[in-house]
Backbone:
């Protein structure tokens, strides 16, 4: 049995289970997996992706450290882990704030351990300016916003009225998805954006906003939501009103897949936490072991999910687990064609 040191009792997500053991193998690379928590489907998927990488290598043990959204918890856990394992540490992070990425970089650079960071990055902080920082990884939210909106606009014949459920103001992903949606609208001049409201990624807020729209904005031909949770809130409001309107989301949670299968949701973008963290760990390992690798800020591949492929996506990501060749470090990087460049 693979021995691991893990700070939680178990992680079960999409048929990936983490075995609990409290003694790490001496001499192995010690992979620190830092996520917000394991209650969120996506964050648990991230952790499971890094586990997939660790289990593909006989010389890697792993530890999952939830930060519970607290910057100090993350940094103290990192310092303690490095104090225990020294330069045999490699690490992957999904921090809860951009500001804390400065602290992560400082601690890892001082200790001389290789690391990768997802999503957040403080302004002015660069991969290239730090010796052990192997990469900043995230899906391209502008592309996600564009693709989902474009798909909906095509479905409604590029005519009619649409509304937009915005994520939390001040967050990069919310702003980028909104810009992607606006880019799609420019290509459909006969579609009118009659309103957009900030629903803070929240299902209840999205439902209430949609109920107000349905009562005040006249016929609505499409609802574009910046994430799946808000899309599900919009669907609830539509069902209460006895209406059928195409709705899009982003993130790729199981409830969205179920809604697509049921015909209640048009599409979503699965951000693929497995791929994101699995390959982040692969890059950190490559750097630590002297294997060839690129460095920089990378946009990772996502999965565009509609009724045509949702069954396969559920089989691959919910009922089963994806399989990757972690030696192919080009595989997870989004191509210029996918970006529309």
Residues:
């Amino acid at each position: 049995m693979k021995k691991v040191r893990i700070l939680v009792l178990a992680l079960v997500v999409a048929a990936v289970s983490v075995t609990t053991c409290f003694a790490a193998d001496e001499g192995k690379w010690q992979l620190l997996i830092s996520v917000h928590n394991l209650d969120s489907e996506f964050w648990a998927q991230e952790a499971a992706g890094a586990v997939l990488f660790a289990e593909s290598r006989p010389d890697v043990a792993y530890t999952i450290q939830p930060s519970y959204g607290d910057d100090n918890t993350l940094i103290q856990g990192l310092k303690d882990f490095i104090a225990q394992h020294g330069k045999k540490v490699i690490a992957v992070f999904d921090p809860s704030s951009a500001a804390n990425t400065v602290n992560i970089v400082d601690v890892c650079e001082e200790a001389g351990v290789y690391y990768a960071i997802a999503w957040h990055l403080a302004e002015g902080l660069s991969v290239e300016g730090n010796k052990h920082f192997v990469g900043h990884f995230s899906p391209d939210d502008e592309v996600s916003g564009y693709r989902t909106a474009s798909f909906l606009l095509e479905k409604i014949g590029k005519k009619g009225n649409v509304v937009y459920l915005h994520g939390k103001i001040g967050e990069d992903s919310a702003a980028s998805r909104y810009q992607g949606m606006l880019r799609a609208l420019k290509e459909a001049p006969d579609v009118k954006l009659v309103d957009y409201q900030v629903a803070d990624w929240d299902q209840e807020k999205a439902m209430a906003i949609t109920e107000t729209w349905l009562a005040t904005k006249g016929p609505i031909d499409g609802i574009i939501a910046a994430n799946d949770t808000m899309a599900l809130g919009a669907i609830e409001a539509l069902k209460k009103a006895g209406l059928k309107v195409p709705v899009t989301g982003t993130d790729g949670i199981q409830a969205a897949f179920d809604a697509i299968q049921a015909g209640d949701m048009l599409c979503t973008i699965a951000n693929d936490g497995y791929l994101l963290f699995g390959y982040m760990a692969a890059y950190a390992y490559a750097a630590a072991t002297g294997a060839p690798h690129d460095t920089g800020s990378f946009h990772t591949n996502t999965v565009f999910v509609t009724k045509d492929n949702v069954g396969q996506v559920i089989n691959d990501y919910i009922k089963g687990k994806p399989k990757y060749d972690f030696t192919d470090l080009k595989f997870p990087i989004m191509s210029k064609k996918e970006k529309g460049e």
User: Anything to note?
Assistant: The first strand starts at residue 12 and ends at 13. The radius of gyration is 21 Å. Residues 1-24 have pLDDT under 50 and may be disordered.
